[in-house]
Specification:
This protein has 155 residues and is of the alpha+beta class. It is 23% helix and 43% strand.
Length: 155
């Protein structure tokens, strides 16, 4: 299993950060490994919302079928994807900072199933690089003057 956990701070209140992250389409704005995200069914921020996430990984583009599995505004949202060969679980935890703003922890777990488990060690190295880039992108995005996406930013 590969895991990446990163924590950043943002000058925004937890409610605003949660709304932004609970719509998984926002990940395409800050995670450079994500080529696109489509909302397939449901409403962002609600359990059962389904997405297709196109991820560039190891020189391939994979489409992962994500679903919102937990939604606890404004503190926590979790997503899962399972293709049979790979299982992914992402969770965002948002806590207020006493001086104002939020602390955001993104916890991502990727598990190869079946024979793919033999690639676990190299996967951890690659996943760590991907996670670091995503953490940097999320910190930049949440610290921008305006997080409101333009009409063309979400797919």
């Amino acid at each position: 299993m590969a895991r990446y956990q990163g924590t950043i701070t943002a000058p925004r209140p937890p409610e605003e950060v949660w709304r932004y992250l609970a719509d998984l389409r926002s990940v395409a704005e800050w995670d450079p490994s994500v080529a696109g995200v489509r909302l397939i069914s449901g409403e962002p921020g609600t359990v059962g919302a389904r997405y297709e996430v196109d991820v560039n990984f190891l020189h391939r583009t994979l489409t992962l079928p994500y679903i919102t599995v937990e939604a606890e505004p404004p503190h926590r949202v979790a997503f899962s994807a399972d293709t049979g060969a790979v299982s992914v679980h992402d969770e965002a935890r948002i806590t207020p900072i006493p001086a104002g703003g939020s602390s955001v922890t993104w916890d991502a777990n990727l598990h190869l199933n079946g024979p793919g488990r033999m690639l676990d060690l190299p996967l951890r190295v690659a996943f760590n690089r991907i996670g670091s880039r995503a953490e940097f992108g999320l910190a930049n995005r949440l610290n921008e003057p305006s997080m409101t996406p333009s009409a063309g930013e979400r797919t």
